[in-house]
Specification:
Elements lengths: L1 H11 L4 H11 L4 H10 L2 H12 L2 E2 H8 L3 H13 L3 E6 L2 E6 L1 H13 L1
Antiparallel strand pairs: 1-3, 2-3
Length: about 120
């Protein structure tokens, strides 16, 4: 029964050729960068790091305390955030200071707007 219903729906649904071409184009686009971003954002610790950096640029030593992560685990999280172009860092004297990139700030604000 469900197979017959599917055929009826399929026969009654029409897409103009130009729309079908656009759909095929959208389906064949490279989405690797978006997949990477979503994977990076799927971790609660990384989201908390982004939210903390939204408030203030922070030293790694402060982030270690805030996240309760070991330094090596935090370095891994920051590396992924940096590779996704969500954060960057600069050296100030003996401190490595992390901050949101413009892209990271815009993305975080966009996400927060909807949640």
């Amino acid at each position: 029964m469900s197979e017959k219903k599917l055929l009826e729906i399929r026969n009654s649904y029409f897409l103009p050729e130009d729309v079908l071409e656009k759909v095929h184009g959208a389906m064949s686009e490279d989405v690797d960068k978006m997949v990477t971003i979503f994977k990076v954002l799927s971790d609660p610790t990384r989201l908390r790091i982004l939210k903390a950096l939204e408030v203030q640029n922070l030293c790694v030593c402060v982030l270690v305390e805030l996240t309760d992560c070991k330094h090596s685990a935090l370095s891994y999280h920051l590396k992924l955030l940096k590779e996704a172009d969500l954060v960057n860092s600069r050296r100030e004297r003996n401190f490595q200071i992390y901050y949101l990139t413009k892209f990271g700030d815009l993305l975080l604000k966009s996400i927060e707007k909807h949640f």
